[in-house]
Amino acid sequence: MCGICGYIRKREVTPGQLKRMNDTMYHRGPNDSGEEFFEAAGGYFVGLAQRRLSILDLSALGHQPMHSSDDRVVVVYNGEIYNFRELREELADYPFRSDCDTEVIIAAYLKWGISCVNRFNGMFAIALFDRAEEAVYLIRDRIGKKPLYYWYEREELVFASELKPIMACPDFQGRIDRRVLSRYLYQQYINAPESVYENVYKLAPGAVLKFQGGQISMWNYWSVREAYEAASGQPIKSYDEAKEQLKTLLQRAVSFRMIADVPLGTFLSGGYDSSLITAMAQEHSEEPVKTFSIGFHEEKYNEAPYARAVADYLGTDHTEFKVDEADMFRMVESIPKYFDEPFADPSQIPTMLVCKLAREQVTVALSGDGGDEFYCGYNIYEKVAQAQKLDRLGAVVHGMCGLPVLRRILPEESLPFKARVIAGNRDRETKTQFSAGNYPGMARAMVSGLPDGERALPVHYPVESGYPVRDWQICRMLLDMDTYLPGDILCKMDRASMKYSLEARCPILDPDVMDFSYRIPHQYKYAAGDKKHILKEIAYDYIPKKLLDRPKKGFGVPLDKWLRGPLKEQLLCYTQHDFLKRQNIFDEPYVEKMVKSYLETGDRGRGTGENYSGLVWAYFVFQQWYLCFHENGNM
Question: For residue 172, how many other CB atoms are within 10 A of its CB?
Answer without folding.
Answer: 19
